[in-house]
Amino acid sequence: MGDTLEICSHHVKDIRKCLKEQILKPTNSIRGHSKAKTHVLDLMSRTLKVGESNSALLIGPRGCGKTTLINSVLDELQRDVYFNDKALVVKLNGLIHTDDKLSLKDITRQMQLENVVGDKVFGSYSENLTFLLESLKSGERGISRATLIILDEFDLFCTHRNQTLLYNLFDVAQSAQAPICVIGLTCRLDVTELLEKRVRSRFSHRQILLLPEEGEENTFTKIASDLLTLPKSKVKHVHKKAIEHWNTSIKKLFSNVEVVSVLEQLMDISKSERILRNFLVCVVSCLKENHPLLGEDDFILVSKNFVGVDAKVQMLEGLSILELCLVIAIKHLNEIYDREPFNFEMVLSQYKKFVCKQSTVQGVERNAAMCAFECLQRLELILPAAKGSMKVKTKTGNDKAYQKEYQLFYFPVISDQVMDAVRNYKDLPTEISQWASSSLV
Question: Which GO CC annotations does the UniProt entry carry (predicted)?
């Protein structure tokens, strides 16, 4: 075991380099989404093989794999040796091509029409558009090369003046002339509402939804385990025993509850695989010659810096012990009364119950407890349940103010945040931490 560890230390730079390449390398292989991929593949195949023009929108949240799916389909189509003779692929991005003029120039360049147009490619927009449309419409179905146009950030193309480019592309796709397939990628569900009426009438209204898939294969734990496992065939200058030892340590690492919890927390924030890959690069950067294997501490440390520290937890950690005790009492009240509003008297009563059961905990005076309660209010850790002054009408018609002890509040902090603060609080008496995690008092 010691010899194997020594080998890992000796080759830690090569292992770290290999892992970073494996995590960061562009990939066109997509996990899941088989139905959506089949749908897109079918559309493009019909355009290539039958000469059928199509248009569609691929809709899904950012990071769900829309671009990867398109690239995966194109890779599959390119396995045909005649693909380059049958098809032209044009890719545009709404973040780059901010108006129709820029879009048109890039379409002309990607379709290799500069030599045909000559100086006119830098002429007026209308001349270039007319030439492009004539080029697209001059072909014959089943004979001409198919044009596959991918419009990433499709919703941004809808902001172009008069949506001229979209209108003409959809118009060509609707005609029975040269085969063309226009596929827009967007994260907006209401994207068709952004289209002008004349553009919408020429769109096929075919929408393919790409939603994050559930299942063990798509969890961050499974993906991270695959990305951090070393392939035996691709790692150069690293002994096989070192690779075996590394893979064994990774397998053991992902059976750790803390590591799985960190990855689940990251997945709750975002289901984007891009976020996970960025996170794993930071984790791999922790590898050093004197630290050749990853541990749960690396994941926890990177998680704090990567995900960020909860501001409310930080505020709770800065409270005095008395103030934290009142927060714990409020937490128990929320659990008892299902987050119903509470007042100072209820909190103080809950705190006194705890003090009576713990002989080692010294009680405090009522005024001190009220000062601590008011401090929680100033920090906005408790918020008034009713707006305005706390007044009621008496029988005589006069306003009478409530005593501040009975003013109702609610607690905008969840139990997990309180428990995180309790765990991180320095030199907190054991009785208080046990009270926080115990059943209701």
Answer: cytoplasm; nuclear origin of replication recognition complex
